[in-house]
Amino acid sequence: MSEESQIIKQRRQKAKELERLGIDLFPNDVALPERARAIRKVYEGYDSEALEGVEDTFRVAGRIMALRRFGKAAFFSLKDSSGSIQVHIMRDRVGIENYQVFKKFDIGDIVEAEGSLFRTRTNELTIEADRVRLVSKSMRPLPEKYHGIKDKELRYRRRYEDLIMNEEVAQTFRTRARIIEMLRRYFASNGFLEVETPMMQSIVGGATARPFVTHHNALGIDLFMRIAPELYLKRLLVGGFERVFELNRNFRNEGISLQHNPEFTMLEFYEAYATFEDLMVRTEELFAQIAIDIKGSTQFTYQGNEIDMTPPWKKMTLRQSLVEVGGIPEEEIDDRKGLNRRLEDLGVELGNGLVLGKYLGKLFDLLVEPKLIQPTFITHYPTDISPLARRNAQDPSVTDRFELFITGREIANAFSELNDPRDQKRRFEEQVASRGDDEEIPPEVDYDYIRALEIGMPPAAGEGIGVDRLVMLFTDSPSIRDVILFPQLRPEGGRKSSP
After folding, report:
1. Count of structural domains within the chain
2. Backbone angle region of 68, left / alpha / beta, with phi > 0 → left and psi within -120 to 50 → alpha
């Protein structure tokens, strides 16, 4: 029998003994307790003499994280969602019977403790318990305190243990919640209406990605988990909502990596009578505000790189970036065969006969994107790979579009919206006609969206921001799985959980 199995057996035995003593292992009558942090905030500055003058008693509840027994007394560290506080229990104070019950408690048990405050010889603020009772019996041991869970994948699978044992991990998700709150507050305060659009859609659209497919039994049709909410949000522009945003999940049936999870969080917003250039200013403003709130400055470190988010940020066209950063001679930018040969030299086979934008986009991914450490707007993407973006008035071969890159990864994508239904219909139909075996291209045209455009959509600009990647940036996290509470993982070889 393994050491863990032996401990589990011992804990189950203790649980039976407690029940024989009439102890409820999982009571449901615990009133809302005081928080450890709130107690510390008020009384941390009190010395021993001052605490003797405090007549109040304090009741806390949380998990036992450390336990030191001394025969007739014990100290334990109690942790709740706000922090930790030390509790002292003495046999002579709580009584022999109650102390015998306490001796059957384990590290990991959730308990309620009530008593007065004092300071120990080492000056630790401590609750002198008049009463300690079990709130929830822990049947399994926590990971060993100083080693924790070394296997990162196991930490993702057992996030509940990871959060208990690693305060830095818990803080990452508190920061994530703060960032999401700031995003909502920013857009609400700027006149944007938060909306919800369908998660299951009958037609794939709004982005280029392979979808997840499900089946609706009552309707007898296949539905697609949405890859983007874009086309529905722009229908709302048609309907008269001039500023809208949605913060929710997207689903893309693609690989899992440090930057990709098949289920991820996006913020998309659309603004009538704005251009992609207006959204650059708005993005700089929003990100700088988050940086100051989370980091205290627009300058901070991410994975060893000094990042400066002070506006304005650098701007380059896609073609400029390929020449100046990617090292491709300007005279070769329009040579599809030459670009394809470069890709083959880099170990990538796209084949000949594709639209120019495909070659440029792939070379950008390989040669430019990893080098864009400081915030950089890459603008004017080719029209043939931007089916929903407005053509540039001076050069119709490119669009009024930008992507934002920070620390070598894409954080946001935005453009002035195409609102000419004739042009949109042509581009959709050309896209579907060229689909071939490419499952990332939508298999059919969303003609209802064309109909909406025919009603009339005001000139507008829209943007999608990858929330998970944004959280990675502001929590100094190297992997997207570090900022998603329960990332998608391969099943554990079909093994069943131990009984």
Report:
1. 2
2. beta
